[in-house]
C-alpha cells in the first residue's frame, strides 16, 4: 500500500470513528441523521449528501436529513414512492448502487439538474431497509472507491436508527395516549347533551373556589338555575324538543357568562349552576338578572307557562365560606331558588347576606 492509499485508509478510519461517536450521542432520529450527513459532506467535500427514511406503511421514502451546496428539488420532507429513482430502488430492493455516470441509467431521476454520479446504500436491520444513505455529484466518478465506506457507515448507524425509530414510535404512542386521556378527561367533565361542564366539574370548581376564598378572605358566589315548568314542556312537546330547549338555554347562558369570572355547568336535569371567585352576592345578583332576561328573550314558546314562553328561576348566595365549607353556599342558593319558584317563577331571589 503506497502512502496515498495509506492516507486514504487512515482518513476513512477517522471518518468511521467520528460517525461511530455521532451514532452514540443520542436517540433523537433527525438530529442524528443530520450530523451523519454533515460529517460525510465535510470529510469528503461532497456537494450533496442525504438520508431518506423508508415509510413502509405508505410505500414511500422521505428525506429526513440533507446537506447540499447545490440547488435541488430535494428538501427535508421530500418523499417519493418506493422503486422510484435510484434512491427508491435502493429502498425497495436493499441493493447498493454506485453509479459513476448517471447518463443512460434506466431508473435515474435528476434532482440536481445535472447529476452525473450517484451513490446509494441501504441501512439494513434484520434484513429490513430502514433508510438510504445517498450522495450525488455533478462530476462523473465522484464516489469512486467510497462504496465500502458508505456501506460501513450504514452498518454503524443501522442499530441506532432502529432504536431511534422505536423511540419515535413510542413517543408518538405516548402522545396519542395523552391526547386520548385528555379527551376522556374532558368528556368525563362535559355534559353530553349541552356541551358545557357537568356536575362533576362544578363540584371540583366549588371546592377549588372555596379553598381560595378561605385562604384569601375574598368572597365567592354561587347561583342555581331551574327551567320553569320543564316537566310540562317535556310532556307537551316531547323529549327531543325538551333536549333542544335545554341546549338552547345552555348556549344562551354560556354566551352571557363568556369572558366573565363565572364558570357555568349543567347541575342536573333542567338545572344549571354557576360559580365565581372574587364576586360578592350583589355582583352575582346583577349577573343572574342578565341570565334570566336573556333566556326570556329567546322567546321559546311554552303553552304550559303563564307567560307563554320558557323562563328560568334563579337562586343566588355569596360570601366567604366558613368552616362548614362552600357547600353551605350551594344549599343557600338552592333555598333561594325554591323561594323564587314559590314566588311566581321567572325571577331571581338571593339568600340573606352572611
UniProtKB/TrEMBL annotation:
SUPFAM superfamilies hit by this protein: GAF domain-like, Nucleotide cyclase
InterPro entries per the UniProt record, alphabetical: Diguanylate_Cyclase (IPR050469), GAF (IPR003018), GAF-like_dom_sf (IPR029016), GGDEF_dom (IPR000160), Nucleotide_cyclase (IPR029787), Rev_trsase/Diguanyl_cyclase (IPR043128)
GO biological process, one term: negative regulation of bacterial-type flagellum-dependent cell motility
Reaction(s) the record says it catalyses: 2 GTP = 3',3'-c-di-GMP + 2 diphosphate
Pfam families linked to this entry: GAF_2, GGDEF
Assigned EC number: 2.7.7.65
Coiled-coil regions listed: 163-190
Record keyword Coiled coil present: yes
Domain GGDEF as annotated: residue spans: 218-353
Keywords from the named record: Coiled coil
Catalytic class of the enzyme: transferase
A single GO molecular function term of this UniProt record: diguanylate cyclase activity
GO cellular component: plasma membrane
The protein, known as: diguanylate cyclase
Biological source species: Arenimonas terrae
Amino acid at each position: 500500500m503506497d502512502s496515498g492509499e495509506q492516507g486514504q485508509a487512515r482518513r476513512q478510519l477517522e471518518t468511521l470513528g467520528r460517525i461511530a461517536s455521532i451514532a452514540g450521542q443520542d436517540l433523537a432520529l433527525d438530529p442524528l441523521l443530520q450530523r451523519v450527513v454533515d460529517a460525510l459532506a465535510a470529510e469528503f467535500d461532497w456537494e450533496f449528501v442525504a438520508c431518506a427514511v423508508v415509510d413502509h406503511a405508505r410505500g414511500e421514502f422521505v428525506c429526513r436529513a440533507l446537506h447540499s451546496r447545490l440547488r435541488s428539488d430535494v428538501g427535508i420532507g421530500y418523499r417519493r414512492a418506493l422503486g422510484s429513482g435510484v434512491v427508491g430502488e435502493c429502498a425497495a430492493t436493499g441493493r447498493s448502487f454506485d453509479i459513476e455516470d448517471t447518463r443512460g441509467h434506466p431508473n435515474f431521476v435528476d434532482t440536481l439538474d445535472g447529476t452525473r454520479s450517484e451513490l446509494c446504500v441501504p441501512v439494513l436491520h434484520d434484513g429490513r431497509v430502514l433508510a438510504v444513505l445517498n450522495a450525488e455529484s455533478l462530476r462523473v466518478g465522484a464516489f469512486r472507491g467510497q462504496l465500502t465506506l458508505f456501506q460501513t457507515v450504514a452498518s454503524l448507524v443501522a442499530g441506532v436508527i432502529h432504536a431511534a425509530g422505536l423511540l419515535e414510535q413510542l413517543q408518538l404512542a405516548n402522545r396519542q395516549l395523552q391526547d386520548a386521556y385528555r379527551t376522556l378527561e374532558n368528556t368525563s367533565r362535559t355534559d353530553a347533551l349541552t356541551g358545557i361542564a357537568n356536575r362533576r366539574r362544578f363540584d371540583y370548581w366549588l371546592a377549588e373556589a372555596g379553598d381560595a376564598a378561605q385562604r384569601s378572605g375574598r368572597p365567592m358566589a354561587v347561583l342555581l338555575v331551574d327551567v320553569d315548568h320543564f316537566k310540562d314542556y317535556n310532556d307537551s312537546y316531547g323529549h327531543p324538543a325538551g333536549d333542544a330547549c335545554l341546549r338552547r338555554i345552555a348556549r344562551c347562558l354560556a354566551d352571557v357568562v363568556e369572558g366573565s369570572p363565572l364558570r357555568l355547568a349543567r347541575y342536573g336535569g333542567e338545572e344549571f349552576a354557576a360559580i365565581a371567585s372574587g364576586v360578592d352576592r350583589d355582583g352575582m345578583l346583577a349577573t343572574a338578572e342578565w341570565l334570566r332576561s336573556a333566556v326570556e328573550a329567546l322567546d321559546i314558546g311554552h303553552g304550559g307557562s303563564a307567560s307563554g314562553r320558557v323562563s328560568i328561576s334563579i337562586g343566588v348566595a355569596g360570601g366567604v365560606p366558613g368552616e362548614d365549607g362552600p357547600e353551605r353556599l350551594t344549599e343557600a342558593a338552592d333555598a333561594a331558588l325554591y323561594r323564587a319558584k314559590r314566588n311566581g317563577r321567572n325571577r331571581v331571589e338571593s339568600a340573606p347576606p352572611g
